[in-house]
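Page 37, continued from 36.
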């Protein structure tokens, strides 16, 4: 193939974005072909809908398969260019006056035939330069695909972190209302402590919001860093074979280091400050031995409008089944019901990470499962989400950004004022207080714990 034919052949195998020979080529809906890395970077920066960089035709599909035939032709074009370049003097071995056409994997050097048979390299593995370079490009393409996948995952986590910030701010506003309502039930002597408590919450919330803001910034910067590295590797793949092989190891180490530096999401958690004398006051309304009925079940659920919505003992991941795992749990409830007055009791959850407790109107029982209606209950529950145990409440469903109790939990029912509150007995602090809403039905205490 003469120079003109070679140039025409290579022109047909050139990506119109990077103006280099195709690297992992894909053919989109309109029929035009581009390097996959070039198209990924181009579409990542463009607005939707995605269009062809050449004819501006709309691309319906988000992803495309590698054009294998085009990839092989591009490899042949690179080899033809490499064979043409071998005629230059800089590719000639000074010792044997032969072309350096082999690559030594052990020493990462270019050799001629006689050099490869010498005592220094005879025991090493040698391959033609073009084949070694093409295999190196494949390694880089796999690593680039892995980096892009991590970057897409970070996009999802970044969105979750941003939503978490908004949810956390809403929760802080709600917690201010709870704390204010709690202190309004206290004596006037506690007003100063209330103010200090709110100031501490404000300061701590400000610090956590700053951490979340910094987390979003770190993740954004990390994604951009991955993009820059991806772009750098794309450019590296287009370099001459010898230059590519000589820097491959360092580039792969850089990607390994980038993976190790992947930032982790923030788990916001407020300190539960103790409320002076709260347990002493609540113990004036203490009732004991209230859980007189017990049974073992496989399924515990909160139901709303007939739609079974299980809340316990399963990780909550987007797209997973709503059916809970089949696990054994122990449920206890009281025969005695409350229709007036103030009542306080404590429940021990020391030996269980997943549990649900509070008050409810009715309990629907079968041989292996129990259900309660969410609108007729005030409950606090602990479950595992993304390898982290968190607290939640129903009506409305809210995540509680406070430390999960590891011992006893106090439940205070103020029936006449329509309030139910939960306390961390060990810390003497408020966990959550349902805002007052009049009760129109009897309530009974309730506890469900997962068996270990």
């Amino acid at each position: 193939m003469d120079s003109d034919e070679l140039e025409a052949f290579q022109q047909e195998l050139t990506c119109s974005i990077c103006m280099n020979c195709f690297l992992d080529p894909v053919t989109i809906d309109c029929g035009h072909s581009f390097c996959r890395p070039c198209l990924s970077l181009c579409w990542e920066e463009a607005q939707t809908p995605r269009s062809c960089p050449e004819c501006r035709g709309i691309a319906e599909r988000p992803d495309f398969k590698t054009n294998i035939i085009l990839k092989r032709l591009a490899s042949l074009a690179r080899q033809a260019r490499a064979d043409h370049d071998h005629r230059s003097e800089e590719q000639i071995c000074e010792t044997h006056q032969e072309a350096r056409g082999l690559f030594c994997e052990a020493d990462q050097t270019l050799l001629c035939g006689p050099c490869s048979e010498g005592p220094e390299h005879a025991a090493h593995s040698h391959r033609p330069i073009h084949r070694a370079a093409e295999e190196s490009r494949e390694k880089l393409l796999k690593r680039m695909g892995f980096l892009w996948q991590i970057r897409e995952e970070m996009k999802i986590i970044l969105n979750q972190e941003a939503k978490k910030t908004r949810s956390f701010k809403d929760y802080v506003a709600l917690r201010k209302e709870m704390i204010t309502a709690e202190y309004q039930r206290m004596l006037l002597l506690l007003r100063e402590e209330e103010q200090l408590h709110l100031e501490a919450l404000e300061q701590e919330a400000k610090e956590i919001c700053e951490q979340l803001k910094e987390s979003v910034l770190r993740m954004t910067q990390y994604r951009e860093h991955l993009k820059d590295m991806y772009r750098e590797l794309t450019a590296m793949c287009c370099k001459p074979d010898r230059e590519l092989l000589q820097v491959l190891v360092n580039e792969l180490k850089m990607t390994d280091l980038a993976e190790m530096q992947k930032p982790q999401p923030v788990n916001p958690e407020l300190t539960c400050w103790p409320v002076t004398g709260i347990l002493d006051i609540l113990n004036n309304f203490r009732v004991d031995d209230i859980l007189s009925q017990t049974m073992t079940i496989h399924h515990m659920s909160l139901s709303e409008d007939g739609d079974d919505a299980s809340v316990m003992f399963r990780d909550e991941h987007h797209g997973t089944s709503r059916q809970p795992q089949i696990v054994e749990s122990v449920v206890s409830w009281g025969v005695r019901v409350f229709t007036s007055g103030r009542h306080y009791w404590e429940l021990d959850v020391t030996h269980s990470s997943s549990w649900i407790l509070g008050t409810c109107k009715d309990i629907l029982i079968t041989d292996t499962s129990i259900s309660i209606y969410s609108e007729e209950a005030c409950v606090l529950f602990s479950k595992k989400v993304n390898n982290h145990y968190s607290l939640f409440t129903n009506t409305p469903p809210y995540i509680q950004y406070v430390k999960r109790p590891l011992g006893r939990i106090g439940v205070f029912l103020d029936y006449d004022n329509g309030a139910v509150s939960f306390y961390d007995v060990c810390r003497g602090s408020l966990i959550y207080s349902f805002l007052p809403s009049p009760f129109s039905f009897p309530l009974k205490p309730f506890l469900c714990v997962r068996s270990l």
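Residues 142 and 215 are 28 Å apart (CA to CA). Flag for discussion at group meeting. The two ends are 75 Å apart (CA to CA).
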